[in-house]
Amino acid sequence: MADSQAVLNYPFPNPTPLEPPVEWAELRRNCPVAKVRLPSGDEATLLTRYEDVRTVLSDPRFTRELDTASGAARVAANESGGVFNSSMASALPQTGKEHLRWRRRVGKWFTAKRVAALRPRIESMADQLIDTMVEQGQPADLKASLGFPLPVWVICDLLGVSDSDRDHFAYWSDTLLNLTRYGQAEIDAAQREFTEYMGEHVAAKRAAPGEDLLSALITEDSDTPLSDEELIATGKGLLVAGHETTANMIGKMVGMLLADRRRWERLLEDRSLIRTAVEESLRFDANPGFGMPRFVSEDIELSGTRIPSGTTVVCSMASANRDEDAFDDADEMDLARTPNAHLAFGSGAHSCLGQALARTELQTVLDVLLRRLPTLELAVSPAELERVEGLAVGGLRTVPVRW
Fold first, then answer.
1. What ranges make up the beta strands (E) of 318-382?
2. Which of 24, 50, 93, 107 is the most exposed place for a label (fewest CB within 10 A)?
3. Could you list the residue range(s) of the whole structural domain that residue 135 is in?
4. More confident residue, 275 or 243
5. Which residue from 268, 242, 241, 380 is spatially nearest to 335, judged by alpha carbons?
């Protein structure tokens, strides 16, 4: 039984890559507001219940302005790799009217209607990558062959980046989300390269605008145009948010669906379940990474526990998505589950800006795989799949498959 006074080491280990840590259920029942110690030595407060996590992510009293806080606020920088302590984080407005201004401008490119128009292009990319995977023979690593390259191709397309620079973008994205994979000197060097590249890219778009997102932001009629620094940070932010998370989710989704062959067979029989299957994969993900840090700007009470101002909380959206009080049969993967108000993309003003794009990529990949490789199966047992270590967003190291 969880002890409300104990300080637990976090993150918790998973029994297997596709199973949730046993601590999640114990904490939801007995200690939903828990003290945790992170690998850096910092302490934070971990939230595991659905209502608490949704409240914090939606409430403006819980801020992302972690660099203004003291003490435990270092958690975000230390445990989330380069994301929260990079120039990207400081250049973009994190709260208030300026954040809303930036979000509205960029968000116009990620509406469901606009993203739907990208679907044929994404489908073509997926077909091309599967062609190459099949040519190279089986077994294959579906993550390396399809899951990893596809989202970076899509983001490069949106930003008007040359196809020849895709590999650079993949590496830069990796270093921004690093926890332990790279040394600090390598991270710093990669981020300098990334910033320099994006600066030159923004300058090129100013000189000769195209039909991409950055060109649209540069040429829009506005009394408050985005600065070069904001444009560079926007490009970097979209890459990080749109590449690594979706790349890993493609691998995890396929892993979950193939781990129990009945799931894959059901989708082959009824393709209309693709949309709800994607949503359920997002909810059911037991390997999502670190969680979302927030800084408490005033005293607040959650689940009967007082959280003092100045605390850094970590929201476990994945634990919240397994909350029995929020989802019937929460530990069962129901491909037809509806409604499905999971928190995989967050909630409130800071919910994932690119969630329509992520959903479209996941749905398209699943649709193309079912069409192209109906006999797809894991080439190892589910228990043999390996977690990625040292990555803020979580994932599987490889997804070995055959067909």
1. 377-378
2. 107
3. 7-402
4. 275
5. 268
